[in-house]
Design goal:
The chain has 148 residues and is mainly α. It is 86% helix and 0% strand. The longest helix has 31 residues. The radius of gyration is 21 Å and the shape is elongated. It starts with a helix and ends with a helix.
């Protein structure tokens, strides 16, 4: 039963990681595509914040499971890394970090959008020095900061 739970959890995690990666790649490859940006931000703002506490709870359940030690005794080499990583996840997880991680992902998205626009400008043979890029970034984000 514990092995099946581990396998099912791994499949779910892989499916979620795949969807996150698809949205991230679409957003970074097409920084001017509003739909790709919206899809990525939806995942970051709505799915991940709900997912992280659930993953934490599943990790706690695994660590407290009565068959855990038996599983490690039988196949330590197979489950040792999973067990160690799960214990670290529980030790390091803090609910108050979830909104911070969301904000960090959103800032990363803004960076990708800016660097993508710079790459397009460079491809269009427009000279854009780092100082000009900084001015452009400040102008693009000044209205956002005024309302924050």
């Amino acid at each position: 039963m514990l092995k099946n739970g581990i396998l099912d959890g791994g499949e779910l995690s892989a499916a979620l990681d795949e969807e996150s990666s698809k949205r991230y790649i679409a957003m970074t490859c097409h920084t001017d595509n509003a739909d790709a940006e919206k899809a990525f931000l939806h995942f970051v703002e709505n799915i991940e914040p709900q997912l992280k506490p659930r993953q934490f709870k599943l990790s706690q359940i695994y660590l407290a499971h009565p068959l855990r030690q038996k599983l490690l005794g039988e196949k330590k080499a197979r489950y040792e890394v999973l067990d160690r990583n799960t214990a670290l996840h529980v030790e390091l997880y803090r609910e108050e970090n979830v909104p911070l991680e969301t904000e960090e992902a959103k800032l990363g998205q803004q960076y990708q959008k800016l660097s993508g626009s710079l790459a397009r400008m460079k491809a269009s043979k427009i000279e854009l020095t780092p100082s000009r890029a900084t001015v452009l970034w400040v102008r693009m984000n000044s209205t956002q900061r005024q309302f924050s």
